[in-house]
Design brief:
By secondary structure, the protein is mainly α. Helix content is 65%, strand content 0%. The chain has 9 helices and no strands.
């Protein structure tokens, strides 16, 4: 009888593999969240032009800080909950992770169903980015990278650059870049030295004449075509984001059930410890 009592007291339903796997899982994303917050704070502090990102719905630095902070809190609950075998923290972690997963799923479905509205919103963002092109170097580099990567110019066409005060084609525009487009709109050449004035006066030309020197198609259509051509890649990215969340939810639920079983075992042992036949 003494041997069975010892075995019962030493036995634990909590699997150390599940426990520490969940801890390491949360520790990894907890570290990533700290890096995200640090980058966001650094970008926010070093940013001198407050109106630079006015064209975007949310300042990327603020977005990094908010997402990183939420991720920090969620993974903190997972880390401490798994390490201390705390059911309350583990349930908080599991519920928050489930809500995040469901919100991402809903956002994806709404984006697919209301694709026309999503396209209109993207068009507004690109148009606003064109207006603020010269206001911020980071935004300027981002637009140039996008136009070079997708071989496009402007939102709908290269004429959209007339919305920018520096590239505007009005006669009273004193800018030396009047009726021009950024160099990133120019057709790629084999020359090692980049001609930053290659887009000078291109808005004065008609489409057929301009397409000999620059990309005349807008970036919105190019982006839509790229998405349609890379659906499997985007699906893989979405799956890559979903799998860690589902793994975290699954591990936390397994550990919660194991902890509950262990508590029941301890209660059973404590109730029968005074029993002489136990």
């Amino acid at each position: 009888m003494a041997r069975s009592r010892t075995l019962g007291e030493d036995f634990s339903f909590v699997n150390p593999v599940v426990k520490y796997l969940l801890f390491l899982f949360n520790m990894l994303f907890w570290t990533i969240s700290l890096v995200m917050v640090a980058i966001g704070v650094y970008a926010r502090v070093m940013k001198h032009a407050e109106a630079a990102m006015a064209c975007l719905a949310v300042d990327p630095a603020i977005l990094l800080i908010v997402v990183g902070a939420l991720m920090f809190l969620i993974t903190f609950c997972g880390c401490i909950g798994s390490l201390r075998e705390n059911i309350c923290l583990l349930q908080t972690f599991s519920i928050c992770l489930t809500l995040v997963f469901l919100l991402q799923l809903v956002a994806g479905v709404l984006g697919f169903v209301f694709s026309d509205k999503a396209r209109s919103k993207v068009s507004e963002i690109i148009d606003s980015a064109i207006i603020h092109y010269r206001d911020d170097l980071d935004l300027q580099n981002l637009i140039d990278y996008g136009q070079k990567q997708f071989s496009c110019c402007g939102g709908i066409s290269y004429k959209d650059w007339s919305h920018n005060m520096y590239f505007n084609c009005t006669l009273d525009n004193p800018s030396r870049e009047r009726c021009s487009v950024p160099y990133s709109c120019c057709l790629r050449t084999t020359e090692k030295v980049i001609n930053t004035m290659c887009g000078h006066g291109m808005q004065d030309l008609e489409y057929l004449a301009a397409e000999e020197y620059i990309y005349t198609n807008g970036c919105i259509d190019k982006l839509v075509n790229w998405i349609h051509s890379n659906l499997f890649l985007l699906g893989g990215v979405a799956l890559g984001l979903a799998i860690p969340q589902l793994v975290g939810i699954l591990l936390s639920q397994i550990l919660i059930n194991q902890i509950k079983d262990q508590i029941e075992l301890q209660n059973y042992n404590s109730q029968h410890r005074a029993d002489p036949w136990y």
